[in-house]
Amino acid sequence: MIVCSCNVLSDSQVRETCARANAPRSPFQVYQCLGCSPQCGRCARTIRGIMDEALKGACETCPAVCPAAGVVPAE
Ligand code: FES
Question: The CATH number of the domain where 39 resides is what?
Answer without folding.
Answer: 1.10.10
